[in-house]
Design a protein that fits this description.
The protein has 341 residues and is α+β, with helices and mostly antiparallel strands. It contains eleven helices and eight strands. The protein has a five-stranded antiparallel β-sheet with strand order 4-3-2-1-5. Strands 6-8-7 form a three-stranded antiparallel β-sheet, with helices on one face. Helix 3 packs antiparallel against helix 4. The protein is elongated, with a radius of gyration of 34 Å.
Length: 341
């Protein structure tokens, strides 16, 4: 019995060291590094989550195996199990790190990350790590790779729709016709921001905060409008009508001044693109024109119209410019019989 005391002590020491490292040292170090705002630190710590405890516990078990009075073949089997756990945990950490940094890179280059790229990168690391693990354990991986290649055709036929969506997702990302963060409008009048492109579908969030799920293959073959291509900046157009008695030179001057004030509030970096108006029609009760003003992106049209209408209405009142109500003149002809009476 005395000969098992040392192995048990190693196991308990490993578990205790893992708990202390995970709950105190790792946590304190995470807070310290995160507060320094070091790029990628959050990814590293999230990838190592729970691994500190696991590695200390495994070290304790390995020391217990080496010091325990057990048969050599049993000891070899247990050591192989420990090796498998260690290698797989390292592979998992590397896969998490890869996915995290791919997400960080795509977020910095495109504005929003796409989970398809990160998931593919993570799957590739896991597959490579699994093959290395098998090779380490003495398993011949060449027949496995050959078998996977032969069975690939059957798998492809069975997963035809899944693979079609997968490759369509790659096509969307590579062609950059749709990017995460873009505002798109589909042919069925659904519209919103693309928040993710996964291996199966594209997720679009409407302005009402509802979510639309579109299979990648459907989106790749659909007709849609991307309001962020070729650039995010778009032209806001607004139709206005003024009274026939208005001085059109004054109307143009005042309207452009108001539009510049609005641009200064919501898009000062675009102020070089001066707003302008174009008179286009003699209406039934007004002279109609259209305002053209640049805003940063599609969503800014709402606040742009809101501010412009408020400011323009107030300014027109100050300048004495009238926006006429719809009017109709009716001529009444009396009945001839009534006229004789």
């Amino acid at each position: 019995m005395m000969q098992w005391i040392l192995p048990i002590v190693f196991i308990l020491a490993g578990l205790l060291a893992g708990i202390i490292a995970e709950k105190f040292v790792f946590k304190k170090l995470k807070i310290f590094i995160t507060n320094r705002k070091i790029p990628g630190s959050e990814i590293i710590f999230s990838s190592l989550h729970r691994m500190t405890f696991l590695w200390f516990a495994i070290a304790g078990f390995l020391a217990a195996i080496l010091s325990a009075p057990i048969k050599p073949d049993v000891a070899n089997l247990l050591q192989k199990i420990v090796t498998i756990i260690v290698l797989y945990s390292v592979t998992l950490v590397l896969a998490r790190l890869t996915a995290g940094f791919v997400n960080l890179f795509t977020h910095r280059t495109e504005g929003v990350s796409a989970s398809l790229v990160a998931n593919i990168a993570m799957a590739a690391v896991l597959m490579l790590g699994t093959l290395i693990l098998l090779q380490t354990l003495g398993v011949q991986i060449t027949p496995i790779v050959t078998t996977l290649g032969i069975s690939g055709l059957a798998v492809g036929l069975a997963l035809k729709d899944t693979l079609e969506n997968l490759f369509s997702g790659f096509y969307l990302l590579i062609s950059k016709q749709v990017r995460t963060g873009d505002y798109v409008k589909l042919a069925d009048n659904h519209e919103g921001y693309v928040i993710d492109i996964s291996w199966r579908s594209t997720t679009i969030r409407e302005l009402s905060n509802n979510v639309i799920i579109v299979p990648n293959s459907k989106l790749a073959s659909a007709i849609f409008i991307n309001y962020h291509l070729p650039v995010k900046e778009i032209t806001l157009t607004l139709n206005v009508g003024v009274d026939y008695e208005s001085d059109l030179e004054q109307v143009e001057k005042v309207t452009v001044q108001v539009a510049k004030e609005v641009m200064q509030e919501i898009a000062p970096e675009l102020i070089a693109n001066e707003p302008y108006i174009r008179f286009n029609k003699f209406g039934d009760f007004s002279i109609d024109f259209t305002l053209y003003m640049r805003v940063n992106e599609f969503f800014d049209q709402r606040i742009g119209k809101h501010l412009f209408i408020k400011k323009l209405h107030k300014r027109y009142q100050q300048e004495g410019i009238k926006i006429p109500f719809p009017t109709r003149e009716l001529y009444m002809q009396e009945n001839s019989a009534q006229a004789e009476r």
